[in-house]
Amino acid sequence: MNRTDNHILKCRCGSQRKRMPAELLRSGIVLLIVALVITACHVKEKRYNEQVLPAEIMTSEQAEEFAVEAPPLTEGIFPCSECHSELEPNPTRRELDWHEEVTSIFDHDKENRWCLDCHDLINRDSLRLASGKLLGFDESYKLCGQCHGEKLRDWRVGVHGKRIGQWNGQKHYLLCVHCHNPHAPKFEPMTPEPPPLPQKMSN
Amino acid sequence: MKEDKSRRSFLKNMALAAGSAIALSGCDMKALDHFLQKNFRTLSKAEVDEIITSLQLEYKNKYGKDFTVSAKPATDGILFGYALDLSRCIGCRKCVYACVEENNQSRGPQIHWIQVLQMEKEKGIDFADSDVHYNPEKVPEEGHFYLPVQCQQCRNPQCTTVCPVKATWQEPDGIVVVDYNWCIGCRYCMAACPYGARHFNWAEPSVPEDEMNTNVHYLGNRPRMKGVVEKCTFCIQRVREGRYPACVEVCPVGARKFGNLLDPESEIRYILENKRVLVLKQELNTQPKFYYFFGV
């Protein structure tokens, strides 16, 4: 670090002509590194998309970080590939004439988002991060955390969301989708339990 | 016949009368034992064990079920704290009834350890204008927020200092408890509590047999009797075993948080250090260990 600083200092003291080659060299190296990183990312993303079989769903090394069990999906709907493997994948954003159970209630930034922002086009049995990384349904909190980063942070430390079990031992963390419908995440109003009876001295 | 009216003979006759009354009425000696029992805090380990065995037998006879009565003491290095997210609570009252069931509260006359107060957002926290009997079709109601109140487990509890017989005290883990056998029902503690968190058994409490929770703690949810005061104990029977209180586990919006205030890694400590936190009636210097916070 010091050496570089000294070098810059020297260059600044020196003439214009003397500074040029060093600067060019530095810029060249930076450009090369950026190009390499971009290429690497693209290669990686492509690899995720090539995975088709559910058995190969990418799970992060930290999958065991939270002992969570995904809530049951609508009966008869999973695996999605059962139907979708026979359908031609269509990435065009459009009004669906199928999946009415979702389209009728869908209210999750409806203006800007649709199915394939969270579900993968090719591998129907997994979710998909914006990076292209595939994700199992048991790790859906990572998908939610892409946009709701602050909530994910609070959830990790136990402030947002619900935990059951042991306060000083094994906890069961509920996933975002245990409480929020991912297609319409706003909480539905609830019927309250009965109010307390008016207090009486004799009863 | 000359009547003997000396003080000595009067006392002698009284003693005889009392003795024969007990013998004749076939008075339950167990009840007498309970009546003469010492304050819980002065009992030896052996005496506690004996009392617990006899209680389990008594409950078995009375309710036809096997009870587990615990007298598990506090663990060192633990100070229980509670936090409730005011920005999440929707006023559904699920906590109220989970608490009733877990802690064997009387269904009639009705006792609720948790009161959920409905307040107007425009007015803020205003007890004088709050409503505990709200009953709309659906909650939350527009323009309102909800503030559940239960025992605040004060570090400086006034209820314990006013008790004339020391039947209520703060445990080393911070839970304020009542020895129901020692309580004389004077209700001074209820007058002293600024949160209305203590409740009196005006009649013999009634709990449906099939709804009786048989996992009880001596200082917590064991069946109470007529004429004693009771209160929230953070579910002492659960938390001393490491479990979350019943209200925490039932809350459908995850507004209730619980943990050890002495553990810097606990979720309760994170909330205290990172969120906007308040306590009720701070000006009274009761120093509650029950915190309200805004999670958003």
UniProtKB/TrEMBL annotation, chain A:
Transmembrane segments: 24-43
Classification via SUPFAM superfamilies: Multiheme cytochromes (SSF48695)
Keywords of this entry: Membrane, Transmembrane, Transmembrane helix
Top-rank taxon: Bacteria
Identification of the protein by name: Uncharacterized protein
Species in which this protein is naturally found: Mangrovibacterium diazotrophicum
UniProtKB/TrEMBL annotation, chain B:
Organism superkingdom: Bacteria
Residue stretches making up the 4Fe-4S ferredoxin-type domain: 80-109, 174-203
KW Lipid biosynthesis (keyword) present: no
UniProtKB keywords: 4Fe-4S, Iron, Iron-sulfur, Metal-binding
Transmembrane segments: none
GO molecular function: 4 iron, 4 sulfur cluster binding; metal ion binding
Protein name per UniProt: Molybdopterin-containing oxidoreductase family iron-sulfur binding subunit
Taxonomic placement: Bacteria, Pseudomonadati, Bacteroidota, Bacteroidia, Marinilabiliales
